[in-house]
Amino acid sequence: MNSALTFDFAPLAPWPLLLACAAAALLLTCLGLWRRARGTLLRAAVAVLAITTLANPVARKEDRSTLPDIAVVVVDESPSQGIAERQRQTEQAEALLREKLGATENLEVRVVKAGKAAAETADRDEGTRLFSALTLALSDLPRHRLAGSILVTDGQVHDMPAEIAAAQDVTGAPVHVLLTGRPDERDRRLVVRNAPTFGMINQELNVTLRIDDTGAAPDEMAELRFRQQDLGERVLQVPIGRDVTVPFKLSRADRSLLEFEVPPIPGELTPLNNRVALSVNGVRDRLRVLLVTGEVHAGERVWRNLLKADPNVDLVHFTILRPPDKQDGTPIRELSLIAFPIRELFEIKLNEFDLIIFDRYRRRGILPTAYYENIARYVQRGGAFLEVSGPAYATPLSIYRTPVSEVLPGRPNGTMRTEPFTPQLSAIGKRHPVTAGLPGSVGENGQPNWSRWFRVVNVDLTRGNSVLESPNREPLLVLDRIEKGRVAQFYSDHIWLWSRGYEGGGPQGELLRRLAHWLMKEPDLEEEALRAEAKGGRLEVERRSLTERKEAVTVIRPDGSETKLMLEEQGNGIASGRLPVELPGIYRVRDGERETVATMGAVNPREFSDPRATPAVLKPLADASHGSVRWLRDGMPDIRMVDKPTRSAVREQAGRNWIGLYRQNDYVVTGLTLTPLVLPLAMLTALLLGMLLMWRRESR
Hints:
Keywords: Membrane, Transmembrane, Transmembrane helix. The protein is of the alpha/beta class.
C-alpha cells in the first residue's frame, strides 16, 4: 500500500465557459497594452484571480494498492519434444523458471502446457499449436499487467500468424524463446508425395515417395523396404532427395496395408518419421461366377437369384437339361438347346472366373477327367469352389469319384437321411464369421428359429470346419482352405426351403452372402484375423479366432516401446481391447501368429515432417516484441525486471546471459482525498480588493 499526490481541477463552471473567459481576458489585456491604457495589468490580475477561483484547483491524494505483474510460461509438450534429450531439457527449464520467477517480487507466474493433442483431436494433423495456447492464456489477462511471455519449445510451431504485426498485437510484451535440442541436428525422413486411396484388384498402382536427409551426400542411395499385407517384403535401392515411384498391385478387396521404411542412420534425430503406412481399398472390377446346375430341381433358382441381384456379378449359368444318355428320338432341328461349351469354360477361360458353383451336379460323361483335374488345380492356385450336394453325391455318380475329390472335404459313405430336422450351428460355427450371429440362430428355447430341412447326405469329413450341422451332428456346411484356394460344400440341397419361407424360412440370403464373400477372401470374413485401428486417442484391437485364446497381444509403439494388451471375449469368436495412445505414427500389433499395423494421425504428420529444433519460426515474433531466442544447451538465463522501453532503449530487454520482463507498476486506487487549493472566502476578498484598487486608479 502506498500514496501518491497529484494536482487537478474541480471547476465551478463548465470548461468551455472558463476557456472563453480566459481568451476574452487575454484579448482585452493585449488590446490595453497596445493602447497603453491605464490599469491594464491590474485588470489582467483581477481576471486571472477570478478564473482561477472558478477553476477551483485541488490537491488529489490517492491510496494505491500495487498489482503484481504477470509472466506467462508456455511449455511445449508436443510429441517432437520427446525426442532425444528435449524432454529432460524441458522439465529442467520449467522447474528453474518456476523457481526464479516465483522468487521475483511482485510477479505472478502462469504456466501453460501446450502441444499435446486431446483425445478427440488426436487423429487430426494440426501440428504444434503453441501460439494458440499463448493467445488463449492471454485472453483473460489484463495487458497492462503482462510482464512478458517465455516459450519453452523446440521451435517447430505450426500455428504462427502470417503477419508478425498481428502476433505482436496479441502479446504486447517481450516474448522470449528457450529452445530445446541442438542447432546441429540431422534427420532422415520418408515423405509420401502421392498415394492412391483405392484401386482395382490386380491392376498396377503407384506410390510416389521421397527420402529427405539433411546430411546426405549428393547422389547418395538409401535402402527402401516395402511391405504389402499378405505379400511379403521388397527391398529397393533409391536415390535420396528425389521422387521415387513404387508400383504395386492389390490382391484382395477391402483394405490393404502398405508399409514403407528406410533404415535409421548413425546420429539420426529420430526414426519415427522413417516409416509410413498407407491404407488402400481394393475394389473388384466385376466378379465373374460360373454356375453349373446338374439337373432341374426346386432350389435351382436360389443361387441364380442371389447372384443376379448383385450388379457387380457377371454370372454365367448353365443347366444341364439334356445329358448325353438321354435318347428320346427328338429331331435335332427341333431342339433349341445351346451346346454346353465345356472346352471354353473348363480349359480356355477357367482361370478368368472368381467363383465356380456346382449345384446338384452328377457325373454323366459331360466333362472329361482332365477338366475335373483343371478344377482341382484352379482351386489349389487360389480359386474358389462351392459344391451343393444332391442325392447323387451318395451314389456311384458322385462328383467325389473324380479328381475334384482332391479339394472336397467330405467323403460320402453311401447313406442319406431323409427325416425332418432343424439345422443348427456347430461349436465352430458359433465363432466362424460366415455363420456366427446369424439371425434366428438362438431362439427362446436356445434352439434356432429356422424351418426344417428333409435331406442330408452322410459324409466322413477328411478336413475342413463344419459350421452348420443337424441335431445328430451330421455336417451340413463345411468350409475348407486348399493351399491358396477355398472350398465350401453343402451336404443338403434344401436351403431353398428357407428362401421360399417354408415354416418361417431362415437366414438364407445372409448366409449365402457371407459364404460367397468368404470364398472371395473378403478380409472382414477371415476366421483367423487380427485387426487394429487408431482413432479418438485410442488404439482399438480386435482378434477373431475359431478357438478362445487367453494370451495378450503385444503393442509396439512408434518409438519402439512395447506393452501388453489383454483382449476380452465379446462373443461370436471376437475378442477386443483398447489402449490409450498419444504418439503419432505406426503402431504394430502382434499375437504370436499374426501381425497388423495401425496408423495414428496423418500419413505425413506435420509434427515430424521436420523435427529438427529451429529458431527460424519464432525469431520474427521475438524480435518484434523486443524479446530473444536462445538455446537451453547454453545454459538457463537469468531473469530481470526492466522498465518498459522507449525508442532509445529497445535493446535493453535481453542481454548475453539474461532476459528481461516488463515492470508494469500497475495498481488499483483504494482511497481518494481531494483538498481545495483556493479558499473561496479569501479569493472573494482578494477579488473585491482588486476591483476597489482598479476603480480607485481609474477614477483619478
